[in-house]
Specification:
By secondary structure, this protein is mostly helical. It has seven helices and no strands. Pfam families: DUF308.
Length: 176
C-alpha cells in the first residue's frame, strides 16, 4: 500500500467518524469520556510502574500519588460516565475561558504588530465560547464533548486527505 493511500484512508475514516459524532453528539460525548477513562487508567498504570523506577522516597511518593490520582480518575470516568461527561464539559468551558484570556494577554505584548488583532479576536472567541457553554450548561453539557470531537475529527480528516494528495503528487517526499 502506498504511503499516500494510508494517509487518505485515515483521513476518510476520520471524516466519517466526525460526521457520525456530529449526528449523535451525546453518543460521541460518552465515547470521549470512555476513551478518556481508559487513557487515564493506562497513564495511571504506567505511572505505577514509574514508582518502582524512581530514585529516592520523595520521587517515589509523588509518583505513587500521581498514579493513584490517575487510576482513580480513570475508574471514576468509566464507572460514572454521565457525571464524568458533566465534569469534563465544565473543564472544557473553563479551559476555553482561560485560553482566551491567555491569548488576550499575549495580544497586548504584540500591540504594535500585525498579529495583535488576530490574537484579540481569537481570545475573544475562546472566552465567548466558554461563557456560552457555561450559560447553556444544562443543555450543552451532554453534547459539547461530542460536538468538539466531531469538529476535530472532520478538520483532522480534511488535513490528512490534503496531505495524502500532497504526498501522491510529490513522490520525492517518500524518501525523506
Amino acid at each position: 500500500m502506498a504511503l499516500w493511500f494510508g494517509w487518505a484512508l485515515g483521513g476518510v475514516l476520520m471524516l466519517i467518524g466526525g460526521i457520525f459524532a456530529l449526528l449523535n453528539p451525546f453518543g460521541a460525548s460518552l465515547a470521549a469520556v470512555t476513551l478518556a477513562g481508559w487513557a487515564f487508567l493506562l497513564g495511571g498504570g504506567l505511572q505505577l510502574f514509574a514508582v518502582f523506577q524512581s530514585q529516592g522516597w520523595g520521587s517515589r511518593l509523588w509518583a505513587l500519588v500521581l498514579a493513584i490520582a490517575l487510576l482513580w480518575l480513570g475508574l471514576s470516568l468509566l464507572v460514572h460516565p454521565l457525571a464524568g461527561m458533566i465534569t469534563l464539559s465544565f473543564v472544557v468551558a473553563i479551559s476555553f475561558i482561560a485560553s482566551g484570556i491567555g491569548k488576550a494577554m499575549m495580544a497586548f505584548s504584540l500591540v504594535d504588530r500585525r498579529a495583535f488583532w488576530t490574537f484579540v479576536l481569537s481570545g475573544a472567541i475562546s472566552v465567548l465560547f466558554g461563557i456560552y457553554i457555561l450559560a447553556t450548561f444544562q443543555t450543552s453539557a451532554a453534547t459539547i464533548l461530542g460536538i468538539l470531537l466531531g469538529v476535530d475529527l472532520i478538520s483532522t480528516g480534511i488535513t490528512f486527505c490534503i496531505f495524502a494528495y500532497y504526498l501522491r503528487d510529490n513522490p520525492a517526499l517518500k524518501a525523506q
